[in-house]
Amino acid sequence: MNSSKLNISNRVILFVSALLLIVVLYVPMWSIELNAPQYPEGLGLSIYANKLGGNVDIINGLNHYIGMKTLHEKDFPEFVILPYCILFFSIFCMITALLARKKLLYTLLIFFILFGVIAMADFWRWEYNYGHELNPDAAIKVPGMSYQPPLIGYKQLLNFGAYSVPDIGGWIFIVVGITLLTLSILAYRSNSSVKVFSKKIIKSTVGLLFLMTNAFACNPIPPNIKIGKDACTYCKMTISDNRFGAVLISEKGKKYIFDDPNCLAAYLHSPQNNSIKVASIYFADFIGSHFLINSNEAIIIRSNNLHGPMNGTFAAFSIKDSALNYISANTGSIVTLKEVLQ
């Protein structure tokens, strides 16, 4: 018969999960970003467990013109309830780890899933009301238009693009949820035939707790450039050549796509974009699968035989030998990122 007790590895993971949930009280849980030509760095709304952060005042000013409700923390009863819910689950994880009972783990998982479903339903309800309950006397009225942000993902709202994604706290919740599900499955299946497999899964789960949260929250992955669909941020031309694309990611996490390194440089030199703080830049690999390469790792060449979409003469390579082979056959020279952006 299977033991009703959790093993030491399970208990350690539950303790770590409890501590991570405490972290959620101090970091943003969800992020909504608004992008428009007049705001090149974008406007951000960060939702914490007990408050709002980001460009709340600017967003409220814009809301006034289109008749949307302004955002005030006192109008959100969730900010009173949510911290207690998070503490409840943190304490529940600790108690489960201390008592080491599988039934407690299963109960914790069920409550955690129910909480997640209810929280997302409540968030959707708030977004619906926020985007549909408009002041009929607003200065700007568009018949039939509503401004409900997406629950998750992207949505176009007039000239604003709205992105809604989990932030650090949200990713921690997701990782803890995956962890509880994994532990519950392993606890249910625990017997001699799956011991080796279980140990491997437990090690992987520990890695998820410490690595996935940091990876999702701190290391944004550049988007794939969709040939024939995406438009260059600078020249507005549809990107048609996958050999010359570039992506800039700002410190706020906003992503700018370009069809040519020349457009990237011109965009950064525009006076209205001086405030953009660059976190990272990626270039398409000139050969092969044309995947994006971090500029810190890319070998960039300049050659008059290169003819980018905007008469560019730069190309990036992931392998130095490939760049040298191109120079040998076509002339050119290796240059630095600084020279590209001059």
What does this structure look like?
- The chain is of the alpha+beta class and 342 residues long.
- The chain has nine helices and twelve strands.
- A hairpin with a 2-residue loop joins strand 4 and strand 5.
- Helix 1 packs antiparallel against helix 3 (78-99), helix 1 (8-23) packs parallel to helix 6 (195-218) and helix 4 (102-132) packs antiparallel against helix 5.
- The longest helix is centred in the middle third of the chain and has 31 residues, at 102-132.
- The chain is flat and about 70 Å long.
What's this model, at a glance?
By secondary structure, the chain is of the alpha+beta class. The chain contains nine helices and twelve strands.
What fraction, in percent, of the residue positions are helical? 40-55%
State the major sheet: 5 strands, antiparallel
Question: What structural class should be given to the helix and strand makeup?
Answer: alpha+beta
Provide a count of the helices.
9
Describe the global form: flat
**What's the average pLDDT?**
84
SS strand fraction: 15-25%
Sketch the topology as an H/E string, one letter per element. Answer: HEEEHHHEEHHEEHEEEEHEH
**Unreliable parts:** 191-198, 215-221
Number of domains: 2
Count of distinct strands: 12
Q: Tell me the distance between the termini.
A: 71 Å
Radius of gyration: 25 Å
- Spatial order of strands in the largest sheet: 3-2-1-5-4
Oligomer: single chain
Write the layout of secondary structure elements.
Layout: H1 8-23, E1 30-36, E2 39-47, E3 52-54, H2 56-66, H3 78-99, H4 102-132, E4 153-157, E5 160-166, H5 168-189, H6 195-218, E6 246-250, E7 255-258, H7 261-269, E8 278-284, E9 292-294, E10 299-302, E11 314-317, H8 320-330, E12 333-335, H9 337-341
Antiparallel strand pairs: 1-2, 1-5, 2-3, 4-5, 6-7, 6-8, 8-9, 10-11, 10-12
Helix pairs in contact: 1-3, 1-5, 1-6, 3-4, 4-5, 5-6
